[in-house]
Design a protein that fits this description.
The chain contains 13 helices and 14 strands. With 357 residues, it is an alpha/beta fold. A hairpin with a 5-residue loop joins strand 12 and strand 13.
Length: 357
């Protein structure tokens, strides 16, 4: 047994004297590597807390640049980042190094598709979800289960958010015998159909909500990396600030024998060829297909998109202009054409933000 005691002048002293922590837990945090995918409001809240808690290495991934509309809630960024159009991952890594120069913070300005997930996930000890779209979230769920890493899921839109630890593939790594922990697909088998999932661009998001959800996710990550099981909340935790309610649904026994991911080990998102985008030659446009066939309620879609730009119905399609000079045409089958770019990543980003998936 270790008898090392934290020194009162240590950077992490006030955490290290908490029950279950101590110098050994602090050392485990220092030796750990967390991958945070998505450096928006949730990612900012989580990254800030993980850096201050003493996680020794952070890999921060985001494909976007800081915009002035991010500053209402994305707490690692300042006005100068938005004016300079700094990539979020780089601004976040810089901020982490300013918080604690002893942390290794790597920025990855990249869209996370199957290849990137298969490269990044095995290299880390734990994956944190700071995402704004379901498809990438399911991809990370696949990668976490396949490569045996714990995954902390978090999501926040409008006034509602959720957070949960996904330990389905990580029992061996965590040294526990539990095999009944569910993955994301045990609870939510399919990605919500295109046009059904609300996004922050169409529904808004309250800064304090993202901070609450990000804090819950950070606590799960700290519990897992530091080895403090009492801190781990083995539940699907959700908060609805519109009705002042939090709900915890226990995860014990919630795994499903027919789950395609953690039970059958069919990693459909990780193994998918990314053929959703087709660059439309000579038209400065990219067509994006939904992840699965769906029928879009165009009336509801139009009402949602009214918050994001001027949209009008044209022959059964919704046509409008959104940020970045892009024109979006949404079809009833969930397809969209993004005009103003030939970059599939930019088109997928616009699709995720405005159509929602
Ligand atoms: Zn599962």
């Amino acid at each position: 047994m270790s008898v090392r005691r934290p020194s009162p002048s240590d950077r992490h002293h006030r955490q290290a004297i908490l029950p279950g922590f101590g110098a050994d837990a602090q050392e485990r945090l220092r030796a750990s590597h967390a991958l945070v995918v998505g450096c928006g409001a949730l990612g900012c809240a989580t990254i800030d807390l993980l850096a201050r808690a003493g996680v020794g290495r952070l890999t921060l991934v985001d494909r976007d640049v800081v915009e002035v509309t991010n500053l209402q809630r994305q707490s690692l960024y300042v006005d100068a980042d938005a004016r300079a159009g700094t990539p979020k991952a780089e601004a976040a890594a810089r901020r982490v190094r300013a918080i604690d120069p002893g942390i290794r913070a790597d920025a990855c300005v990249e869209h996370v598709g199957p290849e990137a997930a298969a490269e990044l996930v095995p290299d880390c000890d734990l994956v944190v979800d700071g995402l704004d779209n379901y498809r990438t979230r399911y991809l990370l769920n696949d990668a976490a289960v396949r490569f045996g890493r714990p995954f902390v899921h978090a999501g926040a839109v409008g006034l509602r958010g959720t957070s949960m630890p996904v330990l389905a593939g990580a029992a061996e790594r965590l040294g526990t015998a539990r095999t009944d922990a569910p993955c994301l697909r045990c609870l939510f088998p399919e990605v919500p159909p295109a046009g059904e999932g609300e996004t922050c661009d169409t529904a808004g998001v309250l800064g304090p909500l993202a901070a609450m959800v990000g804090a819950h996710a950070a606590a799960q990550a700290i519990a897992l990396l530091a080895g403090v099981p009492a801190l781990l909340d083995r539940s699907l935790w959700s908060v609805d600030m519109a009705v002042h309610r939090t709900v915890r649904v226990p995860l014990a026994g919630a795994s499903r024998d027919d789950c395609p991911c953690c039970a059958l080990r069919r990693f459909e998102f990780l193994d998918a060829e990314d053929e959703r985008c087709a660059v439309l030659c000579g038209r400065n446009a990219v067509q994006v297909r939904p992840a699965r066939a769906s029928t879009v309620d165009m009336g509801r879609m139009r009402a949602r998109l009214a918050n994001a730009g001027d949209f009008a119905m044209d022959d059964g399609r919704l046509v409008g202009t959104v940020g970045g000079g892009l024109e979006l045409t949404v079809f009833g089958d969930g397809r969209a054409i993004v005009r103003g770019t030939v970059d599939p990543v930019a088109a997928l980003a616009a699709y995720a933000r405005y159509v929602g998936e």
